[in-house]
Amino acid sequence: MLTIWGRNNSINVMKVLWVCDEIGLAYRRIDAGLQHGVVDTPEYRQMNPNGRVPTIDDDGFVLWESNAIVRYLAARHQRDDLLPREPRSRADIERWMDWATASLTVGMTPLFWQLIRTPTDKRDPRVLAQATIDAERCMRLLDQHLALHEYLSAGRFTVADIPVAAFVQRWRSLPMTHPALPALEAYRQRMLLRDPFRANVVQSLS
Ligand SMILES: N[C@@H](CCC(=O)N[C@@H](CS)C(=O)NCC(=O)O)C(=O)O
Hints:
Helices cover 55% and strands 8% of the residues. It is α+β, with helices and mostly antiparallel strands. The protein has two domains: 2-76, 3-Layer(aba) Sandwich (Glutaredoxin), CATH 3.40.30.10; 87-198, Glutathione S-transferase Yfyf (Class Pi), Chain A, domain 2 (Up-down Bundle), CATH 1.20.1050.10. Helix 1 (11-23) packs parallel to helix 3 (66-76), helix 4 packs antiparallel against helix 5 (125-146) and helix 5 (125-146) crosses helix 7 (182-192). It binds glutathione (GSH). Glutathione (GSH) binds at residues 10-12, 33-34, 39, 52-54, 65-67.
């Protein structure tokens, strides 16, 4: 049985729940993180010394780091359509997932924390302004890529879309002014046709 630790309003947990539903996997989810606690207990730290979510236990195999979990589940269930074995196709997909962690989060994490988790009078306008610029730069890059491609990689839905589209949805839901990026919006609408995306990623921000 697959067990997933993590609150379902964490973007990194959402990615794991999304891939599970794409594959059709049954799982048990245990709330952990922020108000749910759990992540500071010695038992949890033994599984995940970062004290972060998500963590999974798949029949005794423990894994943390959301993108690694997404790739592991696709590979374990032989979903070559989601994660091909051919090295170049695979590298292209992994590249987008790494980019989501290395570049998209630079703006998106402070932007989300400033706008959603920080009371208005405690916000830092400089942090907010820089995060807005950083996030928009990435969204414009995506818009340019998606003007020529329906999906990020391989011409079809793959695990590359999971972290990136989760961030796109979060960015689009933030209470701020968004520039018109038609290809990016068309991509988001394409994702909205997928039940696993709507079920796990589209939710009010908290
Ligand atoms: N790179 C890690 C980041 C994990 C992470 O920072 N998770 C956040 C939630 S999105 C977390 O655990 N925050 C603290 C908490 O929820 O208690 C991953 O992708 O799994």
